[in-house]
Amino acid sequence: MKVFKFGGASVTDADGVKNLAKVLKITVEKDLVVVLSAMGKMTNAFEKVVTNYLGNTRDLSASLHEIVHYHHNILKGLFDSDKHEVYKQVNKLITELSQFLEKNKSKQHAFVYDQVVSYGELISTTIVAAYLQEIGIENMWLDAREFIITDTKYRDGNVQWKDTQQRISEGVNVNGITITQGFIGSDNTHNFTTTLGREGSDYTAAIFAYCLNADAVTIWKDVPGVLNADPRYFKKTTLLHHISYKEAIELAFYGASVIHPKTLQPLQRKEIPLYVKSFENPEAAGTCVGKGVTLDPVTSCFILKRNQVLISLSSLDFSFMMENHIGEVFKWLHEYKMKVELIQNSAISFTVCVDNRYDTLVPLLAKLRGTFKVKWNEGVTLYTIRHASSTEIKKLEADKTVLLKQENRDTVQLVVKE
Ligand code: ADP
Ligand code: ASP
Ligand code: MG
Fold it and tell me: Which residues contact 64 (CB under 8 A, 6 or more apart)?
């Protein structure tokens, strides 16, 4: 059996859903788990609902209405009659969400976030499963929350592998086509909905594949496969035909966002190949991540992360930055959920480039100022370049102000102001 994953970009409208069905027909896989994300940019729309709800703003009903309107438009493009059962199913999910918002007493952002945002995936899978059924592609709808078990770290659930493995082995029918949600699970303490972190549906596909000993995973994207650079920022790119697990883990970790970084470890452990293919051109080979050569073709790879923060700390009294200081800094970075991208230290200073993903920069800086002299730059870009020649690096640096540079055998990293 195989696992397919379709992201938001593949189902932005009714034509996208029809194209998904076409991909299933072309690939003629009989035994398939299909993992699906929320449609289009719906996760962002649900995030807006959370902000309006917790902020008690008057925009709450408008933000909910935008979501209902978007999905109803897609339904209109897929089903001839609004008497179709799927309308009831979608409306039931919306009612469930509204009831949660009315009854909920918790102000804990991450908890509320997961209870709300998960409806993006619940609705998208409901629509797609009904459409496939309608056109004669038999399938079973599966609630991923009954199978993907995490701890109670809302917004960033850690998978409890033993429970998850047991539930999937015992409860998932590997014969036929199953449609399920990416990104969502439930916690092992209260059974509330959790999520695996933004873009986490690739990871869900890998979890199902691992637990079911799948033959392969294919993630269907709006690009021909993994390219040597993000096509949004680089004009000329090269398609990578084959990448080793190790190289792919490095690329994803440094920010090649075409693959979620957590996806590769479970696949690598069982040597399950990962294919990255274009949903617009499903017959093309795409990229295979698996055992074998590091990179084919051998080429330099450019990864870019925007909106990073570079923080420089120095001691207030010119004393050395010793392990105890640095240890303390890391404790706070962890506490404020800052993702550390790069560090550099000298005798009296310590510089760290972080991803301010949870908007915690202000309280972190306040904490750091208690102990250190603090300087920082917001909105900087981190480039990671692998396997590049010095000429290529020089060319990249030419029109930029480099704030920090770090180099080792395969990798050069630059923090720049553009
Ligand atoms: P999904 O629809 O599954 O959420 P994503 O938007 O997360 O898909 O991933 C696809 C996007 O990843 C592409 O549109 C592209 O802009 C971006 N991307 C970043 N780095 C790369 C890369 N090295 N190769 C291909 N695409 C990349
Ligand atoms: N829908 C979620 C997100 O947009 C998960 C995913 O698409 O992978 O982050
Ligand atoms: Mg995505």
Answer: 49, 94, 97, 98
In tens, the pLDDT along 335-363 reads 999 999 999 988 888 999 999 888 899 99
Closest CA to 75 of 23, 134, 144: 134
The span from the first CA to the last CA of the chain, in angstroms, equals: 47
For ligand 1, pick from 12, 257, 304, 387 the residue to mutate: most ligand atoms within 8 Å of CB. Answer: 257
- For the chain, how many residues are written? 418
Q: Which architecture characterizes domain 2-221 according to CATH?
A: 3-Layer(aba) Sandwich (3.40)
Other residues' Cβ atoms within 10 Å of the Cβ of residue 375? 12
The closest-lying atom of ligand 2 relative to the alpha carbon of residue 41 is 4
Q: Which two tokens stand for residue 9?
A: 């970009």
pLDDT at 418 exceeding the cut of 90: no
Q: What is the pLDDT of residues 156-186, one digit of tens each?
A: 999 999 999 999 999 999 999 999 999 999 9
List 288's β-bridge partners, or say none: 242, 275
Ligand 1 centroid to Cα of residue 226, in Å, is: 8
**Where are the chain's structural domains?**
2-221, 301-417
E strands, 332-371, are 339-345, 349-355
Considering only CA atoms, which residue is closest to atom 2 of ligand 1?
A: 7
121: CA distance to ligand 2 center in Å? 8
* Residue 212 in tokens: 């079911």
Nearest alpha carbon, ligand 1 atom 12: 258
Tokens 């429970």 belong to: 163
CATH code that applies to domain 301-417: 3.30.2130.10
As a dihedral over the C-alpha atoms of residue 222, residue 283, residue 122, residue 150, rounded to 10 degrees, the angle is -90
Residue 8 DSSP symbol: G
